[in-house]
Prior knowledge:
- The protein is mostly helical and 91 residues long.
- 34% of the residues lie in helices and 4% in strands.
- The protein contains three helices and two strands; from the N terminus they run ββααα.
- It has helices spanning 27-35, 40-46, 52-66, and strands at residues 7-8, 19-20.
- The radius of gyration is 20 Å and the shape is elongated.
Amino acid sequence: MQNLVRITRNPEVMGGKPCIRGLRVTVGAIVGLMASGHAKSDILAAYPYLEEADIYEALAYAAWRAEEIEVPLKSLPDNCFIPGNPSTAVS
């Protein structure tokens, strides 16, 4: 993974979500705007303090996170009671 210098995380900014350069603009907001069809020019007009490289790095970060390896969860036995799940209640 390349060094992403524009993505920051600070527990005191946006609850610790990954943000652009410490600003209150999350990676998720940028990716969501792009996914809903907004052009880079639209995003840059709406957030004039962002730079085009911020958008590219947000997309690179999101792609990297999507490719992380997930550890499979173990299956529970059929007779296992799960609190709050009525389908596992013993009759």
